Hints:
10 strands; Rossmann fold; globular; alpha/beta
Amino acid sequence: MNETPILEPAEAYALWAPEYPACAHNPVMQAEERAMLTLMPAELAGYRVLDAGCGSGRYMLHALRRGAARVVGVDLSPEMLERARIELGQHRPDARVELLQGSLEALPVPDAWAQLTICGLVIGHLESLQTSLAELCRVTRPGGRLLCSDVHPIGHALGWVRDFKSGGARYAVRHTQHRFSHWHAACAALGLRIEQVLEPMLDPADIPAGAHFDRVALEVPVALVFQLRREP
């Protein structure tokens, strides 16, 4: 059996972007999104919201639906940003949004700009957790909230990969395991207070009939979701 090629994120998302919708489109993402939306304020009127690693714009759309005054999305992939432009144009053509190309390690956003910073399923694509969190902290105002998620590190131990299909072939995106102890140490060093941690499980109702998957996935958490606060 041929092994699935593991691609760097920029190469992977260039292939994935044309078919990447602005919604949670698999059971792991659905579990992760339910947890993230539980932690996201229900009312964002007057908020400046940054989506770091915005992809096709799913959390930008959620922030706009909750009344965010201004939303900025940053992504490394120009192909994913183009996908986000299409999705936002279809769903929220009159919204005040801005899309910028940039890395999570060097966000093109001023210091203390965001009252809420979102980073969904992105940090695992980078090797340095502390460098990524330092940038997220920098762009969030003192006292502001950060919502961050990643694939649960238990998945790495079980051999799971973040895979997708393109052109009839299957690929995987490179992913680095960041354990809870790593998050705890990095947050302590950066003055980020861990307020809540959620470990969502799969909902069997989300799994398509006849799907082939590791049944152990029903018995373990599939994502690690943090609510963080930048200390004033």
